[in-house]
Structures are given as structure tokens and as C-alpha cells.
Amino acid sequence: MNNENLYRIALSLIPGVGSVLARNLVAYAGSVEAVFSQSFQALKKIPGIGEVNARRIKNKEIFERAEKELKFIEKYKIDVLFYTDKNFPRRLKNCIDAPVILYSKGNMNLDMQRIVSIVGTRNATDYGKDVCEKLISGFSERNYPVLVVSGLAYGIDIQAHKMALKYSIPTVGVVAHGLDKIYPSLHADTARKMLGNGGLVSDFPSGTKIDPANFIRRNRIIAGLADATIVVESAEKGGALITADIASSYNRDVFAFPGRADDTYSRGCNRLIRLNGADLIEGIDDLEFFMGWESNKKEKIVQSTLFADLTADETKVVDLLRDKGELFIDQISGELGIPTSKASALLLNMEFKNLLVALPGKMYRLK
Predict the structure, then answer these.
(1) What is the pLDDT of residues 82-113, one digit of tens each?
(2) What does UniProt give as the signal peptide span (predicted)?
């Protein structure tokens, strides 16, 4: 039995201790295991813990539940991603309220060069379904390395997943329950197909009851995993608008497709655009423009690099990006063998020289 995962799961199961407080606990204790070896008196003194939470941490029932969950994930070959792991999604790690643990199943890369979340109403119209298909077929036509994220719900969500499967685009469904079930059950067949090129992600353990509040909580993962959130259709109120608001709070791009003034399920999109909560897009060309993807071809590398007076490190960065296309700052740091702080200063200077473009999620490409 994996003791490290046992402690990680136990940390995520403590009642009243959310992701922010859980990270503070680990920071004070020094490690996840050390959190549970702290004395009751020591725990009480940690900011935000107090007597009630200290008793919860020392409750042995936490480990009984964690052991049960560990057996479940080992039996069904579910991957566990902890926020300190190198393979924890980089974009999500930058979100202040990101979960400390993620459960995933399938064949996915949560750090793909481009990730978009596509969300919308559960009452999708023919217009909304058509918009989804045209957008995702555009990804396929342009041969983009892009991952489509949504929530496996009725309407726009399931349409996005189905179209991604149709056009062989990897797609991930973020669910609001454990990976021991699929809700709604009607989408189980689609979920199974997604495992081959994408999969399922959740921060909830098995046995979690279906609860409306959980769907709002999972929306932060849908927004946090992506460079951009795209609202296809939405009424004046709905989960898609909540996801868009969360994405904005993470300083991620938000886009919305407009609809006619009298269309019930376009009112939310129209309002987002009107109040500058989202940029208006009408198709993939607009998305390319806003995200800076339209010029991301190797043959279009800016000629200024031929004449610029580059340092040794700058030359290495240019060569890396010419070869790879786009890289995260920590990837560049690792390739150059320099601290992230030094890499950040280097990349900023190269931006000033008009050599690089900074993309969402601390990713860079040649201009």
C-alpha cells in the first residue's frame, strides 16, 4: 500500500480543511506525513486551525476512510496527482484555490500546449451544437495540439466531448463526484470512449453523493486547467457563467459566442460580452487572433532573431522555442539549468526585445 498517497488522501478528507488551509498545514509541518504527526497542541497554534480542526486532524476515522479510498484507486488503476508533484497540471497549480489532490483516469496530458474549456447551457439548441462542432472541427483541420475540457453534463458539455471524439481531439471531463460513478449515467458510454484519448478528472473521493454545490466546486478545475474558457450558450443564470467568472478571477481569457437578442440561451453570452466579461468570438479565426495562435508556425519565426545581439542564454531559448514551438517557463528553466527566477528575468528581457510572446499559463513562444 502506498503510504505517501495514504497521507495525501487523508489530508484531502479532513472536514473543514479546504485546499488553501491544507497547503498551509503542509507548509507549517514540513510534509504531508508530518501534519498527522504533530501534537494536538502544536496543531492548535497553526493559523486557521484552532481546536476544532485540530481534533478533526487527529481523528483516526480520517485514515480509515483514506485506506478505503486508496484500495479503490489501486483496484481501478486511478492516478493520484498531488499539488507538489511535478506532473500536477501547471495551469491549475497557479490558481489560489486549486485542489490539493486530483484523481484521474484515462490517457491524458493536462499540460498540453493549448487547453480550452468549452461550457454552456444544459439546454443546448441546434445553434449551440453547431457552434461546438465547427469550432472543434477547426482544431482538427489546423492540426492543433489542443485539449478540450468540459464537465460531462447535459447540453453543451456533452456536445463538446462528443465532437472532440468525432474529430480525434483529446478531451477531458471534470466531474463533480468520485470516479466510482458517472453522472448523468446516460453519458457513461461517451465517458468510456474518452478514456482512450483524454479521460476523467475529479477532486472528489469515491462514494461522494451527487450534490448541486459540488458542481460549482468542480467549475474551478474546468476554468483552472485551461488557457481560455469559451461559453457557447447560456441563459442569464447558469453554471457556465460561474465558470467564466472563475476563469476571469484566474486572469484567464474568456470568450463567448453571441446570439440573437431574443434567444433565451444566448442572453447570458450576450450579457457577458456587453459587460466586458468575455470577448466576442464567431469562430476559430477569432480565437486564433485573441490567443495569438494564428502565427504559430515555425516558418514564421521573426527575422529579428537573425540580427539581434543575443546572449548565450537567449540563443538557447530561441533554439528551444524554434524546435518545440511553445514551452512553459519551468520547462525553459529546466532545459537551461537555471532557477525559475533567473529564467523569468531572461524571458522578460527577450519580450522587451520583441523576440517572444508570453501566453497564458506562463508559456512562451517566438514572435
Answers:
(1) 999 989 999 999 899 999 999 999 999 999 98
(2) none
315 shares its domain with 229: no
pLDDT in tens, 219-273: 999 999 999 999 999 999 999 999 999 999 999 999 999 999 999 999 999 999 9
Residues 137 and 261 in one domain: yes
Residues 287 and 302 in one domain: no
Question: Is there a single domain that holds both residue 134 and residue 45?
Answer: no
Same domain, 321 and 248: no
Q: Which domain holds residue 155?
A: 106-291
* Dihedral class, residue 130 (left if φ above 0, else alpha if ψ from -120 to 50, else beta): alpha
Q: Using CA atoms, how far apart are residues 178 and 330, in angstroms rounded to an integer?
A: 31
pLDDT exceeds 70 at position 308: no
Cis? peptide before 170, omega within 30° of 0: no
Whether 212 and 155 share a structural domain: yes
The total of structural domains in the chain comes to: 3
Cα 99 to Cα 294: distance, rounded to the nearest angstrom:
33
> Model's pTM, two decimal places?
0.81
Residue 120 phi/psi, 5-degree rounding, is: 170, -170
Asked whether residue 336 falls in the same domain as residue 227, the answer is no
Confidence at residue 301, expressed as pLDDT on a 0 to 100 scale: 41
Cell of 316: 538557447
- CA pair distance 117, 230, nearest whole angstrom: 6
Q: Which runs of E-coded beta strand occur in 261-362?
A: 279-280, 326-328, 356-359
- What is the torsion angle, in degrees rounded to the nearest 10, for the CA atoms of residue 110, residue 111, residue 115 and residue 118? 20
